[in-house]
Amino acid sequence: MSLDQLTNEAPAYNFAYLDEQTKRMIRRAILKGIAVPGYQVPFAAREMPMPYGWGTGGVQVTASVLGESDILKVIDQGADDTTNAVSIRNFFAKTANVDLTTHTSEATVIQTRHRIPEEELQEHQTLVYQVPIPEPLRFLEPRETETRKMHALSEYGLIHVKLYEDIATHGHIATTYAYPVMVEGRYVMDPSPTPKFDNPKMHKSKALQLFGAGREKRIYALPPHTDVVSLDFEDHPFTIQEWPDTKCAMCGAEGVYFDEVILDDAGNNMFVCSDSDYCETRQSEGHLGPLNADYKERMQ
Amino acid sequence: MPMPQQAIAQGFTDLTHQSQQSFKAIMDAMAQPGKIYDAPHKVDNAGALNPVAAMTALTLCDAETLIYLDEALNTPETRQFLAFHTGAATTSDPQKAQFAFLSSAEALEGDHNFNMGNHEYPDQSSTVIIAVNDLANQAGVTLSGPGIETSRAFASSSLNQQFWQQAEANNAEYPLGIDHIFVTETQLAALPRSTKIKLDPAQGE
Ligand SMILES: [Zn+2]
């Protein structure tokens, strides 16, 4: 058989790879997750043609919600062009033949690892998170039977103790990623490895947020307009990361989540938006940062 | 299984995409309680199930789920339709049902015994699909909670005060509880256990 014949053959896999029975099982879990926001619904995760750590949980959730007319965006650390994001995007381009975009505003489904886009999400959008460790209490209590009891009883003293120990040791809460949140005053939830900078974006988001953990076989969800409050203490309120007096070197944005880029051996650095689409859109709209080549040209 | 007395109606003609479109509507409805959605597919002649109830069954039920049917829906035609298209078995025990299809909210009155899940696994609960005549976002009850920005007016002539009191009691057990999907001949809306319900003062008297 020629390569041409091979590539022209009807695909051997179902739309979006998963078989219908698996999708139904995942869809049932998603509905339960939506009905009980922040509660981790067990599901029978399938093997996917990619290694764990590559977002198999998120991929299974995306595969179960994605339709022919959806427009998909995939980000990793805020960028659309990283290896992980590209391989997942290619996977769905091949198995589901959906339209792809890098523009947040154009996407109907966004799969992410680490970041929530800077641009506010809307009601018609679904954000799917790839989650490595869904259990926020796991580092404190390794036994699933015990963590399940804690959630059942809303017994979250341990995690407060952990955060308070942070304060005792560091003078502030040192947790900056996967910073635990309280959902609708009932369940403590791991917001996946997003920086705490993004926690406030989860609160009352207009978009539906779905979380998939492949290895740990858990799905959880936040419907739109759900209360998501970062855990804190009266004398040590929750704060997000801040970069005072910092502007994006490329687009001049302030108050966004920055990546630091080292420029040379002398230790010169610059800060750029972690959200590459946000940054590029701003540049195309004429917002230019001090290290942008167009900016230099304009200044000459 | 005895031979069906008449031909079993067609299910989805394009299983993959019609399932996805139907699920999307059900998911959005569950994520925005009380908001009314047009059903993307209507499945006719599904025994005693209305076309949107049938769409829901085809989308969510299979050999891994047990279905409860109330008396009016529990006909040989309905059972044959469900068995043929979903492979789901029916149960007469509401406690065992992952999905319950009801011809009216009456089956929920009193001590209905559908599964509310348990504190460690609140997901092990029944989802109840109730046929109603109409759905409207107008004065009736006021819904609030996850999925609703401030509040949402919701009414159906098929849902009486007794139902809403039952639904309030269901919400009071949160995170335990049953989740509701209301289906007309063409539309659907959902009421998950997380939704708070305020009875209209006029109705509450
Ligand atoms: Zn920028």
Description:
The complex is a heterodimer of chains A (300) and B (205). Chain A has 300 residues and is of the alpha/beta class. Chain A has two domains: 211 residues, 3-Layer(aba) Sandwich (Rossmann fold), CATH 3.40.50.11310; 42 residues, no CATH class. Chain A has nine helices and twelve strands. In chain A, α4 links the parallel β2 and β3. By secondary structure, chain B is α/β, with parallel strands linked by helices. In chain B, strands 1-9-8-5-4-2-3 form a seven-stranded mixed beta sheet. In chain B, strands 7-6-10 form a three-stranded antiparallel beta sheet. In chain B, a hairpin with a 7-residue loop joins β6 and β7. The longest helix of chain B has 17 residues. The radius of gyration of chain B is 16 Å and the shape is globular. At the A-B interface, α2, β1 and α5 of A face α1 of B. The complex binds zinc ion.
Strand element count of chain B: 10
Q: Count the domains of chain A.
A: 2
CATH architecture of the largest domain in chain A: 3-Layer(aba) Sandwich
For the record, what is the CATH homologous superfamily label of the largest domain in chain A? Bacterial phosphonate metabolism protein PhnH
GO biological process, one term (chain B): organic phosphonate metabolic process
InterPro entries (chain B): PhnH-like_sp (IPR038058), Phosphonate_metab_PhnH (IPR008772)
Protein name (chain B): Alpha-D-ribose 1-methylphosphonate 5-triphosphate synthase subunit PhnH
Family (chain A): Belongs to the PhnJ family.
Task: Provide a short characterization of the protein structure.
The complex is a heterodimer of chains A (300) and B (205). Chain A is an alpha/beta fold and 300 residues long. Chain A has two domains: 20-230, Rossmann fold (3-Layer(aba) Sandwich); 258-299, no CATH class.
Furnish the topology, listing elements before pairings.
The complex is a heterodimer of chains A (300) and B (205).
Chain A: H1 3-8, H2 20-35, E1 41-42, H3 56-65, E2 71-76, H4 83-95, E3 99-100, E4 109-113, E5 126-130, H5 144-153, H6 157-170, E6 181-183, E7 187-189, H7 199-202, E8 208-213, E9 218-222, E10 228-230, E11 258-262, E12 269-273, H8 276-284, H9 293-299
Parallel strand pairs in A: 2-3, 2-4, 4-5, 5-8
Antiparallel strand pairs in A: 1-9, 6-7, 6-10, 8-9, 11-12
Chain B: H1 15-31, E1 37-38, H2 51-60, E2 66-69, H3 76-86, E3 89-90, E4 99-102, E5 127-131, E6 136-144, E7 152-155, H4 161-172, E8 179-183, E9 187-191, E10 196-199, H5 201-204
Parallel strand pairs in B: 2-3, 2-4, 4-5, 5-8
Antiparallel strand pairs in B: 1-9, 6-7, 6-10, 8-9
Zinc ion (ZN) is lined by residues 248, 250-251, 253, 272-273, 279, 282 of chain A.
